[in-house]
Amino acid sequence: MSTKTRLVIFDCDGVLVDSEPLAMRVLLDGLTEVGYAVDEAMAYERFLGRSLAAMQTILREEFGFELPADRLGQMRRRLFDLYRRELRAMPGIVETLDRVTIPYCVASSSLPERIRISLDVTGLLPRFSPHLFSATMVAKGKPAPDLFLHAAERMGVPPDACLVVEDSAPGIEAALRAGMRVFGFLGGSHARRPGYRNRLAALRPDCLFDDLRQLPAMIGQDRATETVAPAGAVDSRR
Q: What is the pTM of this model?
């Protein structure tokens, strides 16, 4: 029998805020400026949903490129300036949070400063603070389960009573490895890229959906007995 959901764990980038195209723009521009051009499709596939430390490791171990530390700081400042000008909350998130009746929190691969800025400029920070959890708080970021397990422990909820809302493959993998239910979210601008839906579906999350306003009605669904996906959603287990 499935345990009733007692906590919703939201990823931040690409779930609460429509930030991924902005972050990818800064990343690609920054790499090009130091003489290391990266294909956009590859960047989305390899870097989306991962921490900065994980991205640096991939660049070093797979591509033999070390991004200078001063360049990282410059890119971060550019990103924060861009967020302040252009970042928007994901459509429907405010209405959704108004209707969610159980506790929720944020667990993101981003640095704490980036999480706070993202939520602050979009007006969401008061909804989540102080329940903000970053990959910097654990030994290994997504796709390891550490961050989600840390968030659940801090919130006082067992993993099997948690539901994760994620938009990336590493995030979905991390939630599954943590023993949590996970809904794959496809409402962000980046999710319209070719093959994106299929990549998430291949990981077999509990379902895929593209409108956050569906979430409150979906939270109470029993994974063991569910046979029909919510309106507008795709049950990826079929």
A: 0.85
